[in-house]
Amino acid sequence: MERAAVFDVDGxxxxxxxxxxxxxxxxxxxxxxxxxTHAVHRAVGLPSTDLIAHLLGEDRDPEQDDALSAAHKALxxxxxxxLPALPGAGDLLRRLAGxxxxxxxxxxxxxxELGALRRAIDADDAITATAGADDVESGKPxxxxxxxxxxxxxxxxxxxxxxGDTVWDMTAGRRAGVRCVGVLSGGIPRxxxxxAGADAVYDDPAALLEGLAGSPLG
Length: 218
Known about the structure:
The structure is a single chain. By secondary structure, the chain is of the alpha/beta class. Helix content is 44%, strand content 13%. It contains ten helices and six strands; from the N terminus they run E-H-H-H-H-H-E-H-E-H-E-H-E-H-E-H. The protein has helices at residues 17-30, 37-43, 48-56, 65-77, 89-98, 111-121, 144-153, 167-176, 190-196, 205-210; strands at 3-7, 101-106, 127-131, 160-164, 179-183, 200-202. The chain has a six-stranded parallel β-sheet with strand order 3-2-1-4-5-6, sandwiched between helices. Helix 6 links the parallel strand 2 (101-106) and strand 3. Helix 1 (17-30) packs across helix 2 (37-43), helix 1 (17-30) packs across helix 4 (65-77) and helix 8 (167-176) runs parallel beside helix 9 (190-196). The longest helix is centred in the first third of the chain and has 14 residues, at 17-30. It starts with a strand and ends in an 8-residue tail after the last helix.
C-alpha cells in the first residue's frame, strides 16, 4: 500500500529561513518600511503576497506588492549557488524512498528558487514530484499545496505525513487531513508547532532520520 511523505523545503530540508528574513527585511527597508526581523521570521513560509499583507496590513498600498516581491527575489537569488541543506536532509529523503514512501516536496518557492533548493539537498533520485508556488492558487496555510502533493503522489491523506517547520505548514497539513511532523530547524518553538497540529517534533532532519522508527514515518 503506497504512502506519501510530503516535505516543506525552506527551514525543513534547507537552512534558509534566516536568509529569507534578512532579504525580506532589506526589501522592506528599500521600500521605506520598517519591519522588525522577528516579525519577518514568524511570517516566513507564507507566499509572498500573503507575507506582505501579514506584515504591512490590509491597508497597505497593494500596488507595491510586486515590487517588494521582486526585490526579495533579487536579493535572495544572490545566494542560489550556496544555499545550505540541513544535516541529514538528503539521507532522510533517500531512506524514506528506499522504505517505499513516495517523497513529494510542497513549497512556496517558485521554479527558479526550487531548482536551487533541490541542488542544495542533492537527493533528486528520491523525489517523486514537487508542488511549488506556481502549481497552486493558494499557498500555505491553505491546504492546497499539500493536497496537490498528494494528488501528484496518487496517495490519499490517511496514508500521508507532512513534515514542516512553521505553524503555516502544520495548519496546511491539518487542513489537508494528514499527520504532521514538525522540525525546529526553522526557528519556530516546539510548543507553537504542537499547538498548530504537529503530532511529533524533532530538532532537524538528522534527528528525524535517527528516530525514524518511532516517528509517524516509521
